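Students often ask why we bother encoding 3D structure as a string. The short answer is that it lets us treat folding as translation between two languages. Here is a chain of 112 residues written in the first language.
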Amino acid sequence: MRRDQKWPASRIAFELNETGAAISRRTVTRVLAQLGLNRRRLIDPDGDSNRTPLVIVAKRLGHMVHVDVKKVGRIPDAAGRAHGCDSSQARAAARSKTKAKTGDVTTASKRG
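And here it is in the second language, the structure alphabet:
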């Protein structure tokens, strides 16, 4: 079936199931691989294929325009940081990362 009609494994499995031999598509795929018939170009000695390229015809001008869109993040000028190095947000973040003084009464009461 693979050499004569160039059927894929799913079609061969379907035909075998119609005749009463319950066999899965994966089993057919393994058997075709063992026989060296798993690739379409390996079926014919000259490498011929039964696939023909389809001609794409547009109905009118601009009918088949395809546009790929890539969403790009907004990267600021400060070397890819979320905020500039000298912005108020960056300074506030830096202040929150520093440890509080141990002798400060107000920060000690807040911590504990």
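Translate back mentally: Residues 2-42 form one domain. Keep this in mind for the problem set.
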